[in-house]
Each structure stands twice: as C-alpha cells, then as structure tokens.
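name: query_chain
kind: protein
chains: 1
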Amino acid sequence: MLILVLVSLAALGLAYANGANDNSKGVATLFGTGTASYRGALAWATICTFAGSMTAISLAGRLVDTFRGQGLVDEAALLDPAFPMAVGLGAAATVMLATRFGLPVSTTHALTGALVGAGLASTGSVHLAALGSGFVVPLLVSPFVAFAGTLALYPMLHKCRIGLGVTRESCLCVGEQVQVIAREGIATAVACGPQVEVGTRAECFDRYRGRVAGIGAQTTLDRLHFLSAGAVSFARGINDTPKIAVLIFAGVALPRSMGLLLVGIAIALGGILHARRVTETMSHRITAMNHGQGFTANLVTAFLVIFASRWGLPVSTTHVSCGSLFGIGMATRLARRRTILGILSAWAITLPVAALLAMGVCLLTR
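structure:
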C-alpha cells in the first residue's frame, strides 16, 4: 500500500514540476512583448492550461496509452510497483533541476528518459524500435517543423499587414540620462542631461497603427495575441496532463477524470509558485519580439501541439514553442545564440539525466 501512495505522490510531484517549467510557455510572448504583465500572463496561462487538462479527459486518451510504457519496456516492468514511482521521481527531479536554472526543458523528454532508465533497471532491456518510432522521432522532428512553420508564416502575415494598410510605429523615449559614479566606495547618481532614444526596448515596444474591420489594429492584434496564447496553454494542458496522469493510474485505482483533475491542480500550483525563471528566459532571453511576432509564434505552436495531441504523438510543447521562437529570432535576425545553445544543451542531456535518476530510484526501491 505504501508503494502505491508513493507512486501517486511522485506523479503529482512531476505535475508540479511540469507546471513550474511549462506554464509560461504559452504566454511568454504576452510578457515578452509587454501585452500583459507577468501576473496577468501567468493567470491567463493557468486558466487555459487547467481547461486543457479537463478537456484531456475526452480528447487525449491515446497519450495515456502511449505513456504507460507498453511496447517500450517488457510487460514484467509494467507489473513492478517500483516502475511508475521511479519514472515519476526521475522525470520530476530532472525538470525541477532545469527550472532552478531557468532552462525550458521537455517533460515529455524527461518522461521518455525515465521510462527507458526504469525499464533497464527493472528488466534489463527496452525495445529500441518502439523508442525510435514512437518517441524519439516526434520529439526530434517537432521543433524543426515549428521552426520552419514560423519562418514560412511570418513573412505571409507581414505582407498581409502591409496589404491591410496597417503600419508599425516605434515610440520615442525622451528623458534625463543618469549615470552612477563610484568614488571611494560611495556610489553617487549624477544627471548628465536629456537623452533621446528611438527604437524598441523593454519599456518601449512597437505599436501598430491603422484599422481592421473598423477596429484599431493594435487592439485587434492584442486580442488575437491573447487568444493564441490561450490556445497554446490549452493545448499544453491537453498534451501534458494525460502523460503524467498515467502514473497515478498505475498507482491507485482512480477514475480517469479524477486522476486528470488532480494532475491539473498540481500543474496549476507549480506554475503559480515556480514559473518566474523559465518565463524570463522564454520572454526576454531567446529573442526580442513585437506583438505580431509573438502572435505568429503562438499560432504555429498551438496548431502543432493540438494536432499532435489529437493523434497521440508524444511531441513536446517546450520543443515546439521554443522552435517557434527560434524561427522568429532567425526571421528578424535578433536571435540570442548563447541562450539558444544553452537551451539546446539542456535538451540534449534531459533524456540521459532522467534515465539515470529513474534507474537509480528503481534499483534502490528494489
């Protein structure tokens, strides 16, 4: 009985870690473009993700079957009570470690690695063919599809904006420049006269001028941007909740709706309490973006994640959303390569780290 309770706690811990690392990925563009404050963006993400978690009860049953591990590991491993606990703890520890450093990683990737590690520890083997076709290929292909989709869609929307007569204008920032001078260990603020800056900064964003269907272009875009961010968060709830809930089903005989509800609540709590660092990375450190570019990235991400969830493909919302932002950065030539390389490095070690942690947990419990 104790092991079954521990399995459920491990699953909820993974759900909390998922919320901490993933909750901002749908609304990072809202915060990054100044469309919403951090709290406003996070509240919108929490609401839409929870709605997606509840919708997963009817739409994402195939993902539950995929992440049971059937076909990937031997049946003997699935019957081992330590197996789902090792998977949950290994994946949760990996995702929380990345969250601590503000790195957006994939819960799907961590779960895949944990399944492999626990399977090896339990029975000594995994089915490589199933690992490649059912897990690795979708995880590797999805960010490239998002990257290419964003590169293709952004110029089209840009031309559409010009065709509608909507112009883009940057604000003019005028104010007194202040420099801090340190003398003998004492810092003193010295006014250096007026300063004029033109362009976009964290406090100075592009705006759109014109009207579409009788409504101001900026107002229309802001509404569409919120809807697209909500769609990404909704899709993430559909995509991630069943993958985690399957661990609860392995530990406790609960109705599917109850398991998904508990996971949805844990995801929401993780996002509310621990999402700040990953949000900063996604919003400001990958690339600078304006409202239209953020909307484009969200549109591509939402479409790909919802499509994959419907057909039971284990893609990662992280990989897709980051791939879209990489595409925007490439299209605008504002991508911050050091940050992107750091994220890619984290992706590369997620699977082996989760596998080793899950293997260790499984061996210790046995």
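note: The mean pLDDT is 81.
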